[in-house]
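Design request, tokens follow.
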């Protein structure tokens, strides 16, 4: 089943054409690697899906319905979550507090409601268990490894029963062991029927975990192929321009 469909989507900022006439579809439970050099348009494309930017042209459909999003909260309302490269975590707070940041649970009503820490610790623990992460709700983020921090950021997406998770360079600047943890988390999202768009410069990660790879160059889509039908050498050629299209 197609969960997301982009049709001839473009985005320009004045005279700069950041994304030019891109179309692709995303199936439920599919992991798609989005690759390209710096400035290829990957982040702009993902930010349109996440509600940060509105397309200059083209349409974005979710389960067949056209989306008209003005801000990220609109995308979240449709089941689209994003994990930014910087993760946007607060180091001085616990894992549970970060998971519920801005969406805290309360007991009581109106101005007399108080934060329900027990419920937040419990639910965060359940999510970490679903993700098979060793992260504990009461652990401070500042004491966590890169892989654990990713688990916290991914756990945040599970609060809203996300249908699509957009991930921006989740394995950048972490150890080999932590990379394996993050790729395992992506597989668990897929196994739960959640679609993942993975922006990455790391070829081994994309070829390990993705079902398809989309390559962008200078704002255009130059390839959209099943991983099994491509190779790291071909994708490198597409990224650099040595291969025009595939």
């Amino acid at each position: 089943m197609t969960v997301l469909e982009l049709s001839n989507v473009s985005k320009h900022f004045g005279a700069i054409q950041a994304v030019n006439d891109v179309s692709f579809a995303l199936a439920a439970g599919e992991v798609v690697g989005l690759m390209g050099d710096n400035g290829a348009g990957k982040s702009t494309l993902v930010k349109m899906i996440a509600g940060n930017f509105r397309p200059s042209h083209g349409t974005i459909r979710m389960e067949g319905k056209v989306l008209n999003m003005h801000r990220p909260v609109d995308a979240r309302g449709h089941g689209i979550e994003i994990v930014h490269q910087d993760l946007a975590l607060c180091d001085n707070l616990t894992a549970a507090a970060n998971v519920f940041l801005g969406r805290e649970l309360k007991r009581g009503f109106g101005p007399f409601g108080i934060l329900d820490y027990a419920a937040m610790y419990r639910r965060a623990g359940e999510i970490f268990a679903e993700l098979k992460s060793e992260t504990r709700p009461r652990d401070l983020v500042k004491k966590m490894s890169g892989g654990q921090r990713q688990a916290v950021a991914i756990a945040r997406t599970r609060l809203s029963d996300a249908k699509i998770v957009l991930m921006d360079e989740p394995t950048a600047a972490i150890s080999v062991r932590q990379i394996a943890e993050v790729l395992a988390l992506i597989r668990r999202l897929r196994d739960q029927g959640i679609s993942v768009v993975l922006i990455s410069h790391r070829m081994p990660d994309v070829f390990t975990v993705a079902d398809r790879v989309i390559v962008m160059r200078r704002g255009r889509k130059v390839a959209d192929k099943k991983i099994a039908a491509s190779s790291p050498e071909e994708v490198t050629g597409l990224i650099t321009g040595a291969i025009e299209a595939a």
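Comment from the thread starter after seeing the answer: thanks! The mean pLDDT is 93.
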